[in-house]
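[Q] Does anyone have a clean structure-token version of this?
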Amino acid sequence: MSLTANATALGRLMGPGPRMPVYLLMFVTNRCNAACDHCFYWSELNTKVKEELTIEEFDHLARNLGPMLQVTFTGGSPELRKDLPDIVHRFFEHSRPTNMTFCMLGHSTNRIVQHVEKMLRLCPGQKIKIGISLDGLGEDHDRCAGFRASSTAWSPPSESLAVLNIITRISAWTSA
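[A] Here you go.
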């Protein structure tokens, strides 16, 4: 984000008159492969999937919001949306956020990597942060996230972190 766009976003926050938002927490889907016992959104997960916003609706939203400091994409698990990079591109084009953050389950490593690589191509220079939810180590994670005890549930999030740390211009972290 340019210094001018940053100043515009800050002016919207601190200037006189009506205030426009500069931080957006965007639930892009309610699809999720987990069943975390601590999830505040559990009763909405995997329902009304056909009612998700379209690319055109995200484009309209981004155009009307204008300059943003931060856009956080969450859900459910946003990596489950095949069109996530296109959604992100709309906000890059129209809102020019300083930061874009993604809160992900981390169980679809290949899809996450494909999404991140496409986002980096579509949004040159954009700062992207990926948060992978880890609810403990090994079996503790599997139990908290509602997965049956197995070696497969724990592996994808840790694999996703390892792969994402290789890709440049992003920051990957865990939330516990």
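[Q] Thanks! Anything notable?
[A] Residues 109-122 form the longest helix (14 residues).
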